[in-house]
TrEMBL record:
This is Alpha/beta hydrolase. Coiled coil: none annotated. GO terms for molecular function: hydrolase activity. PROSITE patterns: PROKAR_LIPOPROTEIN. Keywords: Hydrolase, Signal. CDD domains: Esterase_713_like-3 (cd12810). It comes from the Bacteria.
Length: 364
């Protein structure tokens, strides 16, 4: 079987016309040939001993014997939809730090997100939650989840503005209900962050699907490069605002880039491994409010460093025969975008840029 679950054979599902409760925008229906969910990757942890259902007793969290029992965890969770007359290559959407597949679904102000936008363009869409996040929260290792009051920190890092004040011209809804929804899509890691584990799970997904295009956001950007080094089924990558884990040949790793609040470092890999990235088309997108020179605001500064590193990375990959395009949205006439251009007010225009690139590179 192509997948690890029972497909919806011969079933035609239709998303009927509806009106968003907040945006009030009527949308036409989408005919689906298939939809479902499954998990990929992961491991099984086993405790020594013999399971005794009698001695084990009734359910009593935290006060029961684990002898002889197993824990299935560290997998990725996937939700997928395949439209009628689907294009050949699916799009696999991977979230960023502190986020889940919610990033790609309805926008905080109730409009269609990339999930639905690209379904309308007949792409099979696969949304994933990486291991130890969201619907894939079953971890084989414990962690402590802090209940920190940090909304305003993320407001700045995600470049909506400073504190509680939006940037002028920002492409994010100023409706308080939208900001409330935005904050509530943040979700914690349920175990220690493990990049190798995440990359292995995403590679396992492409083993299941076959050829497809990976679409990443923020922290998954660097993990996406690593996944492409592992799996030839990744035929192209579109990365929205990658911020870390840029991969260079071992003897071409650039100097670290200091910024207010931290330092951005690149990774080195053998040249033969690095050259795998030169065999697929890659596009990188960054939004607005990213300075060209150092500033005092840490929320902007880390993205200045990221863009500077992305420029160097683009030059090196292309110098080795690759095909990387670096796009800063203001240069394409799209101004006011935050760290979440896929859910900004102009997300349809942002999506059109990606659609045009997919067609141009023969990934449609």
């Amino acid at each position: 079987m192509r997948k690890t679950f029972v497909p919806l054979l011969g079933l035609l599902l239709t998303l009927t016309a509806c009106v968003s409760p907040r945006s009030g925008t009527p949308e036409g229906g989408i005919a689906l040939a298939e939809q479902g969910s499954f998990t990929v990757g992961g491991s099984v942890k086993t405790s020594p001993g013999t399971f005794d259902p009698i001695a084990h007793g009734a359910f009593n969290p935290g006060n029961q014997s684990t002898a002889g029992q197993t824990l299935h965890g560290d997998h990725a969770a996937v939700f997928y939809q395949v439209p009628v007359r689907a294009r050949e290559l699916p799009l696999v959407f991977w979230h960023g730090y502190g986020q889940s597949m919610r990033t790609w679904q309805s926008t905080p102000d109730g409009r269609e997100g990339f999930q639905t936008i690209f379904l309308r363009h007949r792409f099979p869409v696969y949304l994933l939650d990486q291991p130890r996040r969201g619907l894939a929260g079953r971890s084989t290792e414990p962690t402590t989840i802090a209940a920190a009051t940090d909304d305003q920190l993320w407001f700045g890092i995600f470049r909506l503005g400073v504190g509680t004040e939006f940037y002028p011209g920002v492409q994010f809804s100023r409706d308080p209900a939208a900001l409330n929804q935005f904050y509530r899509q943040i979700t914690p890691d349920t175990g220690p962050l493990n990049i190798d584990l995440n990359v292995a799970a995403v590679s396992a997904l492409f083993d299941t699907l076959g050829a497809g295009v990976l679409v990443t956001h923020s922290h998954s950007g660097g993990q996406g490069w690593l996944a492409a080094l592992e799996n030839d089924n990744i035929r192209g990558i579109a990365a929205y605002e990658p911020g870390s884990n840029f991969v260079f040949p071992e003897d071409e790793v650039p100097e670290p880039i200091d910024y207010a609040g931290g330092t951005l470092r690149a990774r080195g890999v053998p040249l033969a491994t690095f050259e795998r990235l030169t065999r697929i088309p890659i596009v990188i997108y960054y939004g607005d409010y990213i300075p060209d020179a150092p500033v005092e605001n840490p929320g902007q500064e880390q993205w200045r460093a990221a863009v500077a590193m992305a420029r160097q990375w683009t030059e090196v990959v292309n110098a080795h025969g690759g095909d990387v395009t670096l796009v800063q949205l203001p240069d394409r006439g799209l101004k006011g975008n935050t760290h979440f251009p896929m859910s900004d007010l102009n997300n349809q225009a942002v999506a059109q840029l990606l659609l045009d690139w997919l067609v141009e590179k023969g990934l449609d």
